[in-house]
Amino acid sequence: MSGRIEALQEIVERDQVWPVMAAKYGVENPVPPWKTSLDGLCDSLDHAACDENIPNFKERRDEEDALSATVYASLPYPENQLVALAHSLVARGVIDEVELKQRLASIRERLEA
Amino acid sequence: MTDHDHDHDHDRTVKPMVDEITDFEVLEIALRELCIEKGIFTAEEHRRFTEFAEQIGPTPAAHLVAKAWLDPEFKKLALAEPMTASKEVGVDWMEPTGFGTPSDFTAFQILADTPTVHNVIVCALCSCYPRPILGNSPEWYRTPNYRRRMVRWPRQLLAEFGLYLPDEISIHVQDSNQKHRFMVMPLQPEGTEDWTEDQLVEILTRDCLIGVALPKAGVTTNVITDTRQAIHPGTAG
Question: Is A34 near chain B, with CB under 8 Å?
Fold first, then answer.
């Protein structure tokens, strides 16, 4: 679980974290706009955790705590929560890393179109 | 409209926004889309849970306590039948999202402070929290540091929040879990005896309902607390 995942490491290094973004654009919201959607994602996963690879609530939070204190220690909350969740899903084989990289690229292209 | 003759000020009504697509925003969408495509959950489920996350907050809990302070009968109800009392402030614990609970909790209890007992909540295992009535937990509540130290050294940790309790007041730390959620009903502070419910709600902050602060006339904001790394005391220098 503690190994590096390249696609996520690149995100960490680019460091577009909310405190930096909010300061750069003069925005006052304390948390990024995607936070409630992440909450919905976590609740949906907890609700669906019957497949053996999908982390249940406790596993998800334990892995988040461990990853946030180590691999993603440089990230603030809730960026560390999001990236730790991605890490858990890739490490557990729920999402393939190559598939994730492709999807990140296609979504960015879509949003910037 | 061609004249544009309305009298509002665009400079003041348009708030600044982040004009940059961040990797984190993209990652959240990617995870969600892939999970939906794999059939782990549906887009509709995600939408409903997200709406739930957007509408929850500490206001219903503050109203519940304010009502209890003003009405001894409602206080009895809140302590004896907290689920029923919650409905009176608009929270149905059995169906907070309208289609099922976001977690698997089955019980909710309100912990009433007394002149000699102060209550505070924690989830030592993860971050269970009475979300339907109190909203999302603050960042520090989720940290292993708060969870680990609150069950061991509550008096010291409360002091770090600025809450210094005299030794004659016992501290009861209530550990939440996936089946059982709690919130604190603090004592009504002096000087607020003739206040209305809305006035009382203003000083019933989230922190007071967790138990890391006491309500006080004039204090309407939560404590700003740095999160700390979980360093085991046995290994800390």
Answer: yes
Q: What are the domain boundaries of chain A? A: 6-111
d(CA A37, CA B32) in angstroms, rounded, equals: 9
Q: Does A95 touch chain B (CB under 8 A)?
A: yes
Question: For tokens 């030794």, what's the residue?
Answer: B167
In this structure, are residues B122 and B175 in contact, taking their beta carbons and an 8 Å threshold?
A: yes
3-state secondary structure at position A46: helix
Please state the three-class secondary structure of chain B as a single string.
CCCCCCCCCHHHHCCCCCCCCCHHHHHHHHHHHHHHHCCCCCHHHHHHHHHHHHHCCCHHHHHHHHHHHHCHHHHHHHHHCHHHHHHCCCCCCCCCCCCCCCCCCCEEEEEECECCEEEEEECCCCCCCCHHHHCCCCHHHHCHHHHHHHHHCHHHHHHHCCCCCCCCCEEEEEECECCEEEEEECCCCCCCCCCCHHHHHHHCCHHHHHCCCCCCCCCCCCCCCCCCCCCCCCCCC
- Which candidate from A10, A44, A100 shows the least CB-CB separation from B49? A44
Domains and CATH numbers, chain B: 19-53 (no CATH), 58-210 (3.90.330.10)
In the chain, the amino acid numbered B154 is P
pLDDT string in tens for chain B (237-residue length): 444 555 545 555 667 788 889 999 999 999 999 999 999 999 999 999 999 999 999 999 999 999 999 999 999 999 999 999 999 999 988 887 776 666 656 789 999 999 999 999 999 988 899 999 999 999 899 988 899 999 999 999 999 999 999 999 999 999 998 788 999 999 999 999 999 999 999 999 999 999 999 999 988 888 776 666 655 544 443
Residue of B198, B196, B200 whose CA lies nearest to B215:
B200
Check A37 against B28: CB less than 8 A apart.
Answer: yes
Tell me the C-alpha distance between B53 and A31, whole Å. Answer: 13
Look up the pTM and report it. Answer: 0.85
